[in-house]
Amino acid sequence: MNLSGLTPPSQPLRVQPASPADASEWDRFVATCPEATFFHRFGWKQVIETVFNHPTHYLLARANGEIRGVLPLVHVKSLLFGNALVSTPFCVQGGVAALDEESRLALESHAEQHALELGVDWLECRNTTPRRPDWDAKSLYYGFRKPISPNPETNLAAIPRKQRAEVRKGIAHHLVAVEDDTIHTRCFDIYAESVRNLGTPVFPRALFFQLKETFGADCQGLRIEQHGKSVAEVVSFYFRDQVLPYYGGGLPEARASGAMAFMYWELMTRAAARGAETFDFGRSKIGSGSFDFKKFYGFTPEPLQYRYRLVRAGKLPDINPMNPKYRLFIRLWKRLPLPVAERVGPWLSRHLG
Questions:
Q1: Both 263 and 221 in a single domain?
Q2: pLDDT at 325
Q3: How much is the pLDDT for 2?
Q4: 10 Å Cβ neighbour count for 8?
Q5: Is residue 204 pLDDT above 70, yes or no?
Q6: pTM of the predicted model, to two decimals?
Q7: In what helix (H) or strand (E) does residue 66 lie, and over which residues does it extend?
Q8: What is the residue range of 250's domain?
Q9: Is the pLDDT confidence value at 340 over 80?
Q10: Quick check: is 268 in a domain?
């Protein structure tokens, strides 16, 4: 009997752990799946394991030999901040990215099972779209995105008047933008001082090095110089037609020259020349200074769709600097000498996610 014309039987969907051998196929899926983001890229697995030493549990759903969905999970366990399974810590997004509802539900079900087996306090999925109304949610983080034009003057005109004046101030002060591939040196130094001044523990320098090592040309630094001195910086990711400024900061003198507003306009210009059409300004907590800055820069805040499946915890986690119990710590941290902050900060920040 000739069976060559018969359609092979359909294989059932199955969820399995991803291995390094799946990395290329995983990233090909992420590159085309509408729900996937830069934070779904397989390289984050290496970054998180290498820099933060957290166990990862990357899951993929497969049917008929093809990936139908992915879910990166990381186990973050801390005596200070709780025990959680997160998709994905240190990232804005990272929840299920799938092509169909069957794959989404299968991956979420396996994530729940992992959370129960690990005995975590909660499972957190940082979704890109609304999901699981049966899980807990809270409106703390907001995202900021808008289109950008290939014309720098069009982007400038789209910035509200007060912030546009800050950009023009930077132009008048003859600020210079410099692309920087060695983001773990001068870019990191500005970032570290900036977050210390905000009362936030700094990430390790190794994170910046590993990000560049892992993502190459899709991870780019931009510094702003004034009279030869670096006063502001931003490290950005590129994904599809998007630019995502992610780690940014400025020294105190950056404010007088409008360096921060100038820097993001300059980044829009350079990203558009590279082919970017969307400026993704990341996430900010409502009520924070960065939230106000992005809103005043012309971005409309949109609530991020984070969902929590409580396991051992009786209530949602409240790990954020707006929590009153952290205010004294923040005031004290701002006063730390920078070398001390750079030494102690990485130990704390690895648990914040």
A1: yes
A2: 61
A3: 44
A4: 8
A5: yes
A6: 0.91
A7: strand 66-71
A8: 149-276+334-349
A9: no
A10: yes
